[in-house]
Design goal:
Layout (H helix, E strand, L loop, with lengths): L2 H7 L5 H9 L3 E3 L2 E2 L13 E3 L2 E2 L8 E6 L28 E3 L7 E7 L2 H8 L7 E7 L6 H9 L2 E2 L2 E2 L4 E6 L2 E6 L6 H8 L4 E9 L2 E2 L8 E3 L2 H10 L2
Parallel strand pairs: 7-13
Antiparallel strand pairs: 1-2, 1-3, 3-4, 5-7, 5-15, 6-7, 8-12, 8-13, 9-10, 11-12, 13-14
Helix pairs in contact: 1-2
């Protein structure tokens, strides 16, 4: 197995992040620093990161979490705010969030130690859909404005792909996208003249938030994991 893939399977980081760690000289195999991410790792080889020996691939787990507003979706926060990792017991596993929700948004976020799956679920090439419910200022939202979102709008970092949109009420819409730009849904709505007052992600791929309460989490079933992996093939 290639070294970068080994690190991803060990839950250290996504494969792309593992390649960066290797290039920085932070990884050794059998006591020798390796900077080639394609280096083969054989069964029984001692692999260390920052001097700490890995015990081998961890069991793959994925948790669904209903992130509350105010919690940040990073592994650590320099401002000392609560993070999504504070809400899910790691039980010794190296968990990290899949994708992000800004601190002002809530809803479904995944945490996993499967770096390869995380990378595939967030890479634009795989077009994994994410659905949001947004409550908007300046309601009601017109059909013309919904049509603009469905066609794609132009943001400062380029045009968006067409979105699936439906009106839930006079001031609320559901919007499905497969991109993952910073604060994308908020910026899309501002482009059509509506500031987002509240934003919640209610679906990620085939998973739905359902009745999961804010701050609560659950481990995905084997069937759910299989469906997620099928989305990112």
């Amino acid at each position: 197995m290639r070294l970068a893939k080994y690190l991803a399977h060990a839950g250290v980081a996504s494969r792309r992040a593992a390649e960066t760690m290797i290039a920085a000289g932070r990884v050794s195999v059998e006591g020798e620093t390796v900077i080639d991410p394609a280096r083969d790792v054989r069964e029984g080889d001692r692999v260390s990161v920052d001097g700490r020996e890995l015990s081998g691939p961890e069991p793959r787990v994925v948790y669904a979490l209903n992130k509350p507003v105010g919690v940040v979706s990073t592994a650590r926060d320099p401002q000392g705010r609560a993070t999504v990792l504070d809400l899910v017991p790691a039980r010794g596993l190296r968990l990290y969030p899949v994708g992000r929700l800004d601190a002002d948004s809530g809803g479904l976020i995944l945490l996993t130690n499967d770096g390869e799956l995380a990378n595939r679920l967030t890479h634009p090439r795989f077009e994994v859909p994410k659905t949001y419910r947004a409550r908007l200022a300046g309601a009601p939202v017109s059909e013309r404005e919904l049509g603009a979102l469905r066609a794609g709008v132009r943001l400062e970092d380029g045009p968006t792909a067409p979105a699936r949109v439906r009106r839930v009420s006079a001031d609320e819409i559901e919007l499905t996208i497969h991109e993952g730009r910073n604060r994308q849904v908020r910026r899309m709505c501002e482009t059509i003249g509506h500031r987002v007052l509240a934003l919640e992600r209610i679906a990620f791929g085939g998973l739905r938030l359902g009745e999961l309460a804010p701050g609560a989490h659950r481990r995905l079933t084997r069937a759910e994991l299989a469906r997620l992996r099928a989305l990112a093939l």
